[in-house]
Write a structure and sequence with these properties.
This protein has eight helices and 88 strands. By secondary structure, it is mainly β.
Length: 1045
Amino acid sequence: MNRNHTLILGCRRAAWSLVVGLALVVGLALAEPVEKDSAEFELNHSASQIFDGDALQNSWVNAGGTLEFKLTDGILTIVSTENNGWVQHDNDETPWELGTEDGESWTAEIRIRLANDEGNGIVIWGANGAERGILQVNTSNTKMFNAEVIDENDNTGGFNTFRIAYDWDDDYYYVWRNGALLTDGAAAQAGTTHSRFIVGDCCSNIPMTTVDLEYIRYDTTGSYSPPAAPATVAENPESATVKVGDSVTFSAAFDGPITNYQWLKNGEAIEGAVGSSYSIEFVSKAHAGEYTLLGGNVIEDVTTEAATLTVLVDEVLPTITSASATDTFYTVVVVFSEPLDASSATDKGNYSFADDALSVENAALKDASTVLLTTSKQGEGSVYSLSVAGVKDESGNAVAADTTVPIQGFVFALGYLKFEYFAGIPGVHIEDLLDSDKYLNNEVDEVVYLSAFDTKSAFDSKGDNYGARISGWLIPDRAGDYGFFIASDDAGELHVSSDEAKENLEIVVQELSWSAQFEGGGDEEGYPFDSYVAGKRYYTELIYKEGSGGDGAMIAWRHVDDEETISINKLEPISGQHIGTYVDPSGSSVKINGQPQNLTAPVNATVSLSVSAEGNSAVGAYVQYQWRKNGADIAGATGAVLELSGYTLDDNGAIYTVVCSVPGMEVVSTEATLTVVVDNEAPTVVSVLSEGSQVTVEFSEPLRTDTGAVATTVPRDSTDFEFTAAATDIHDGDALLGDWVNAGGDLEYELTDDHLTLISAANNGWLQHDNDNTVWEKGTAAGGSWTAEIRVRLAGDDGNGLVIWGANGKERGILQVNTDNTQNFGKQILDESDNTDAFHTFRMAYEAGSGSYYFWRDGQLLNVEGAPRQAGTGASRFIVGDCCSNIPMSSVDLEYIRYDTTGAYAPAGDVVTQGANSLANYSIAGATVTNITVQEDGKTVVLTVDGAVDGGDSSLSIKNVADLAGNSIVQTSVVIPASGPKITPLGSVDFELVAAPADIYDGEALVNGWVNAGGGTNFELSDGHLSLVSAANNGWLQHDNEESV
């Protein structure tokens, strides 16, 4: 062993020592470890002896961070979910703990394969009670911990064997990889009192990700080197014949320990080709030759037989497969069908534009078959003709002399932002993205277009370890100052320019950690220095970094004038009408499949025009619409359906068209003419059918539907309610009157001339109408509809509020009135008006048929579609105050309380009941209409009924239903016919099959598919009939030839 000298002064085991020299010692004449095969080691545990598929075995424990284990075909995969985790042989009595408690030599060996993850690595960590040493194995090198690299071979391509031995007498470590000694001796690392053995990432801060393990072996009886073993070729690489531009892969295998791999071409080493396989992605003529693989071995290196790569002569001319401009307006990307000769491909003289419309300033290879041209500035949407001549492939074949392709400048696409995705970049900080070579080289993996400033509008989350850039222009529709808000996962930064130029970007807001919702008051809220001009474009870029877990990003803005009316939790991502970016219009197409049709409609009706179109462009299959009336754009009419209402006879003959567009292309529909007529005739009932729980009514013409509010109630002024109580009917100034009781917490009362003040001295107190025999208790005992109304004014105290609480023996509902809003209890806020400035009227109605609640404030319906049932109950009671709601009611002024248990009623004049879909317009004695469906023809109505509908005995009453012109039906009562099977009269001579005697039996045999089945039967044909005589019991005629009717 060739050694140099290192001077060591002092005693190794003394309290002090002086070491002069290198951390890795070479050259001292030390005793070399004796040979011993690891199969003979004191401890020899295979993967399944360490982990049996369910748990760690044989005193192996997961120490440090959490590890995940998976056993597959004798290989144990160890996955580290957090930094600093390892397996340790530990029960206080393991061979290691017993064998090293007094120091002495030891040897350990593992066989592993590392996943090719950035930073991945593993250590062997051994301590013998006096000295601790660590061997660090990384993906591309091996080293003693905190020392220089001692081997630079790939540890990810296959399994490799690593051995570390500590010699107690020499006080040195020895390391082997696949049997090859990597160091002549490494100095002792650190003193310790521990005796333990570890494999993983202990105390080394190696970000271990995934490692495959075959075995762990150790021996505490000495320091041992691996026996030298030869290697032989197990598999030679195969020869291949390919064309220029194809790809090819050579692979080989050896038996025995291989210390390193090196591929050679014609006997010369290929730089970087140091694995068991070698691939060429784009084969050129220069790649032809003989390829061998050399495998390093401690006894003797071995080399495979040569594989010959034959590259066929290419006689095919290169062609242009695509050519497009870019959103820089200064470059053109030209993609060829095969790898190019670099010299001709980068000669800018080989490219020109017709009529010198553009000049070519430079030509550069982007990859083997892609050329990037730099041109003079291109016009937005302008079309150019590019000519290419003299560009050759690697075989010297030039493109055809007359090669030309069209190029079109990018166009501005309103409604979209560009999203660029950079995959495979770890980390959660913006710096991790900005510092990555992939981002710096603009190596984008995917481009999509967002229809809002929200990644969820188009981007399918790719999971973990990526970065993204979103770019485009903001277009405010109001002048002034704006605040911006960011939500991103993980970190994100928004930059906005002071104008349309990219050069003037400034950071406005940032998310330093992560957030799934908009937040204010910190870095997540920011304001540009400059005010915005309405309609002007402002360039913007958002970058964000995703590590693991949830991901995405979105941006909202808010005009400073809206700060009082739009809270941060109500902000939405910036919508498509305020964003835009430039896209490639080449290849855009749009086609109208369904044209808008002429319309004839009565005055005051609501009708619609529609169009169906399909498109394709750089932004996807999205089609944008703009409706026109008499050639002029209709503001806000940008959907596939145009609803028309409020027109008059003056609009008769109006012509409507719609422009269907994608970036770079638009198509105008055919004209649709509106004919306006006067309709004075009310609809009538044409027919009524019943089937089970459904009744179908057909009317004479299309009907009006209440699309805003499906009214389930009828009007009734609260002065006409079943029960009314003014303030003086509730309290006389000294005590509560009649059946009103103070339930729950104590309330105090003050009566003035026109109202009663309720003061809550303790939380959870209320007024209740209760004597077991009140109008409410009797009227709602069996369930049913009800309505309640109060008129109140709330004191402007923080959190002050009250509820209307009604239960009808089956269902309980609560309306919650707060100082600054009204809400369906525990659910959505219905109104945000001030309830402290004056007295306001609140009404709540429960419609038992549909199971819906309706709420009004000062006569205005707050929930047009109704609210669903809230909670089941067996109680029948009525409450005003703070019952069971934890509202800290302080002081409320009350003018009156009124209720009615006979139905669900709207304030007088509030409900439009002309809709064919209004439950209030239909009634059936003994049953309840619970649902209404108006069919597409507009004149067929299907009623779903809860209760008996006996044909002939039930009648359906219909009122108020109106046609499109607003003509209401005369109140009509119709009989509901019987449901069930319908029998139609038909004489048997008209049956599908008619057979006379002679059609069955001709006097000798059965005919026309008739057979004698079962027992024996004799047949006799007479005039006009056929006699069947049974010769044996159980016989019959059967029509049976497998094709009979």
